[in-house]
């Protein structure tokens, strides 16, 4: 039996694909009334057109997940540290399905898990994926990072489905940071397209943004080959090129001078956290700095572009 914490689009999509593969799934959401309704209508508000099969039990009571040995955590990164202790659970394995860096502690999700659930083996699931694609059974590949190779292998076997293919690695930092930092670059790319700066500008931002991801992530212990894989380059390509990406959509609205959509965009907090990490480790992050200024309203798109173009010329 698999438990999923977070009945948003991604958590629900994971529940649907795992149930389709024959797993019994308990899907917890913080809105107890909405989860009670979901048991009746067999759907959740964030994916209203995706039916919940009989193998999925929606619930607003965390105690219903107490007998789940593996729990997937699909909640916003900035609320993970408050959600875990409130649940009162003690799973054997806890797999983060969220992307970002905690703005208060500068920790990735597996360190937050280790702090609040010390008896659980933490892991991280990340990569190029949209919830709607996973829920519809479209082919998707993700990275599964777990420092314990044996546990990682068991989780890979348990969580892979005919349409969701998982590749495992012990490079937890690479999976976490690739998935988190690409959201910052996606905001910048969205702003460039929204402002009408063109595809060449987007390509430049993606490339130089990837260079920043490499510099910071390797300084924090990530491996380059992981960052060039699904959870780094793969996720960057998807998020920076699709209007369906919430981070890209945020940047696109800012670039057009419009009110950003009302949706969780992990890249805003991650950009601030990344700047602090860069300062601590002596890593220069000009694209990230420009993105922070843009989101905070301190820079317009033209100012952000000028700040990047006026930097000293250097080698690649």
UniProtKB/TrEMBL annotation:
Q: Which residues form the Glycerol-3-phosphate dehydrogenase NAD-dependent C-terminal domain?
A: 171-305
Which terms does the record give in the GO molecular function aspect? glycerol-3-phosphate dehydrogenase (NAD+) activity; glycerol-3-phosphate dehydrogenase (NADP+) activity; NAD binding
Question: Which terms are listed as keywords in the entry?
Answer: Cytoplasm, Lipid biosynthesis, Lipid metabolism, NAD, NADP, Nucleotide-binding, Oxidoreductase, Phospholipid biosynthesis, Phospholipid metabolism
Concerning SUPFAM superfamilies, the annotation shows:
6-phosphogluconate dehydrogenase C-terminal domain-like (SSF48179), NAD(P)-binding Rossmann-fold domains (SSF51735)
Q: Please state the protein's primary subcellular location.
A: cytoplasm
- Looking at the keywords, is Nucleotide-binding present? yes
Q: In which pathway does it act?
A: Membrane lipid metabolism; glycerophospholipid metabolism
Q: Which residues does the record give as NADPH binding sites? A: 10, 30, 99, 131, 246, 266
The record lists substrate as bound by 99, 246-247
The residues the record assigns to binding sn-glycerol 3-phosphate are 99, 127, 129, 182, 235, 245-247
What is the protein's given name? Glycerol-3-phosphate dehydrogenase [NAD(P)+]
Q: Which gene encodes it?
A: gpsA
């Amino acid at each position: 039996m698999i438990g999923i914490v977070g009945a948003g689009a991604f958590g629900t999509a994971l529940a649907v694909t795992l149930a389709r593969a024959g797993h019994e799934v308990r899907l917890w959401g913080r809105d107890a009334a909405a989860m009670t309704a979901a048991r009746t209508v067999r759907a959740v508000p964030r994916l209203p057109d995706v039916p919940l099969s009989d193998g999925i039990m929606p619930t607003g009571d965390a105690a219903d997940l107490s007998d789940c040995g593996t729990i997937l955590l699909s909640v916003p990164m900035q609320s993970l540290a408050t959600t875990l202790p409130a649940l009162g659970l003690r799973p054997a394995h806890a797999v983060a399905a969220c992307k970002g860096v905690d703005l208060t502690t500068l920790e990735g999700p597996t360190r937050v898990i280790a702090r609040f659930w010390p008896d659980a083996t933490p892991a991280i699931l990340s990569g190029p994926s949209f919830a709607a694609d996973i829920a519809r059974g479209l082919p998707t590949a993700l990275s599964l990072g777990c420092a314990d190779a044996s546990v990682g292998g068991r989780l890979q076997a348990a969580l892979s489905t005919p349409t969701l293919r998982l590749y495992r690695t012990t490079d937890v930092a690479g999976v976490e940071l690739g998935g988190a930092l690409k959201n910052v670059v996606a905001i910048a790319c969205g702003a460039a397209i929204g402002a009408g700066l063109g595809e060449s500008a987007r390509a430049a931002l993606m490339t130089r943004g990837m260079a920043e991801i490499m510099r910071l992530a390797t300084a924090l212990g990530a491996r380059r080959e992981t960052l060039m894989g699904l959870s780094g380059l793969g996720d960057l390509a998807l998020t920076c090129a699709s209007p369906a990406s919430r981070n890209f959509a945020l940047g696109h609205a800012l670039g057009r001078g419009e009110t950003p959509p009302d949706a969780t965009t992990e890249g805003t907090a991650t950009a601030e956290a990344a700047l602090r990490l860069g300062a601590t480790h002596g890593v220069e992050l000009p694209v990230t700095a420009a993105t922070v200024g843009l989101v905070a309203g301190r820079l317009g798109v033209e100012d952000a572009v000028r700040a990047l173009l006026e930097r000293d010329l250097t080698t690649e």
